[in-house]
Backbone:
């Protein structure tokens, strides 16, 4: 893909070519709108992807540093993306829906923050996106799944590792189902089916795993959208109550300006608030869209409990999917008896494992060295099994993205993510971890162990709501105080639930794009 240059003005400016940005570019450009997308990273193509652990690191964040803060610092670099496709280029394609209760936490339980929409408002967009992406699964087997269309494809197969772990869940009376995966179990609309080689973490060069390079970005380009790589936006321009464009640094290091009638901010959960806070002006002294000092507040992540076991049987852990073969939401209900911790959790069962790197076999036992590690690896690469529990974190104002006061190479202030889990979340994770070890033992593992606390997924920071005094945007991601500024992505989530966020992120983007097109003149201001 040859280097593109941005025009000096455009009808729609989208910052970020990840899942939300690329999808909205496709929707708006296909409707005849003039769209320009600026992305800070490389212009990846599917054929650039290589199923290799070292190469896959190139898909992680490669931009300005994100500084850590709080008792449980967030691992931004691993969870973020770099270049076209964003984090969705190396996401694992596990696409469960949020539950109805996830949208009404305050109303039903007096905890967290209510969404300004219900599950039923989002349901048709879940249905639309799963048909577009080609989601594989078994809706009837997911007895906890809210109402919605059945999946367009049958579930991915249950291989050795998942078959063994399902035995453990059955033994303790916890129900499982095939994981809903944005991975093709059969050829679909001209795309190849998955070969289950377990390399989703490095992207998917055959396009079986849905990501923005499979359809969103090519569709947007075919409709005339212009994508510009290595364009680092450092500030949004504004005039009174409107966003007027952006200032960015191009691939040659030259500062450029672009004007726009509508601005869509679709960078990461961390970069969106960072740009807003760095976009101070006389009209917006606290940063753009920050009239109530809420930009960056209510950052959330999932607290993870990875559990491992060693079996006599061969588990073939290198095969399958990086996401999961099976899923369990049997213990998703938020309230428990006997003062047990509040909140939902899910199990993703039998992710594929490679020998090394951050999600590899070797790092499950970081305490081993030399011959002991060698002997462990000889056994584990054929006989290990794993599953990962994801615990919900409730929104708290003190968990936030803020400006650090330290300037980066481009002159903009670097962000700091301040994050700590509260006692309830840590107890919920411990409850989940203990259950996981019981399941692993019940499955027949001779050795069972767990990893330390880990984190995944980013949500919050630019939350949606009805009231400008308690939220940054309305239910369509439109900034309350800036008429032509739309924010997209999982930063809009008022609560994080306990499910992977990408499917919901896409559904929200579809709902927003449809509303924009139906109310175009109003968005222009």
Residues:
């Amino acid at each position: 893909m040859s280097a593109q240059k941005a025009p000096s003005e455009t009808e729609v400016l989208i910052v970020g070519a990840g899942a939300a940005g690329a999808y909205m570019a496709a929707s708006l450009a296909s409707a005849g709108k003039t769209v320009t997308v600026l992305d800070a990273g490389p212009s990846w193509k599917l054929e650039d992807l290589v199923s290799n652990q070292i190469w896959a690191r190139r898909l992680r964040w490669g931009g300005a540093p994100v500084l850590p803060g709080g008792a449980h610092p967030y691992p931004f670099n691993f969870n973020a993306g770099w270049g076209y496709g964003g984090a969705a280029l190396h996401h694992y394609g596990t696409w469960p829906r949020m539950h109805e209760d996830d949208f009404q936490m305050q109303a039903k339980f007096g905890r967290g923050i209510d969404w300004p929409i219900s599950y039923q408002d989002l349901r048709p967009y879940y249905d639309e996106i799963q048909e577009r992406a080609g989601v594989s699964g078994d809706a009837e087997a997911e007895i906890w799944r809210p109402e919605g269309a059945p999946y367009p494809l049958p579930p991915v197969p249950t291989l050795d590792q998942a078959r063994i772990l399902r035995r453990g869940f059955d033994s303790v009376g916890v129900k499982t189902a095939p994981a809903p995966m944005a991975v093709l179990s059969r050829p679909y609309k001209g795309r190849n089916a998955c070969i289950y080689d377990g390399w989703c973490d490095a992207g998917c060069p055959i396009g079986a795993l849905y990501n923005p390079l499979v359809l969103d970005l090519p569709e947007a380009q075919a409709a005339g959208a212009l994508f510009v790589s290595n364009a680092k936006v450092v500030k949004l321009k504004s005039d009174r109550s409107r966003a007027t464009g952006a200032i960015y640094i191009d691939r040659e290091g030259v500062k450029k300006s672009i004007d726009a009638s509508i601005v869509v901010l679709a960078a990461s959960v961390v970069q969106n608030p960072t740009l807003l806070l760095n976009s101070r002006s006389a009209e917006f002294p606290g940063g753009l869209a920050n009239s109530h000092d809420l930009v960056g507040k209510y950052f959330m992540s999932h607290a993870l409990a990875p559990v491992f076991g060693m079996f006599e049987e061969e588990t073939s852990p290198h095969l399958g999917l990086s996401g999961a073969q099976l899923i369990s939401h049997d213990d998703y209900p938020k309230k428990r008896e006997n003062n047990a911790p509040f909140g939902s959790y899910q199990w993703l069962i039998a992710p594929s494992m490679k020998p090394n790197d951050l999600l590899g076999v070797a790092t499950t036992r970081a305490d081993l060295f030399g011959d002991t590690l060698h002997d462990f690896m000889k056994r584990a690469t054929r006989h290990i099994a794993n599953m990962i529990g994801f615990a919900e974190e409730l929104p708290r104002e003190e968990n936030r993205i803020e400006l650090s006061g330290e300037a980066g190479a481009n002159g903009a202030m670097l962000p700091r993510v301040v994050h700590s889990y509260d006692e309830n979340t840590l107890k919920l994770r411990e409850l989940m971890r203990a259950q996981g070890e019981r399941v692993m033992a019940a499955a027949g593992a001779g050795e069972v162990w767990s990893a330390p606390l880990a984190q995944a997924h980013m949500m919050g920071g630019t939350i949606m709501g009805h009231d400008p005094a308690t939220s940054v945007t309305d239910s369509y991601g439109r900034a309350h105080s800036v008429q032509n500024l739309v924010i997209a992505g999982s930063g809009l989530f008022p609560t994080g639930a306990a499910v992977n966020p990408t499917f919901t992120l896409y559904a929200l983007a579809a709902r927003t794009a449809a509303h924009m097109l139906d109310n175009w003149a109003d968005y222009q201001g």
Summary: The longest strand covers residues 255-265. The chain has twelve helices and 17 strands. The mean pLDDT is 96. The radius of gyration is 22 Å.
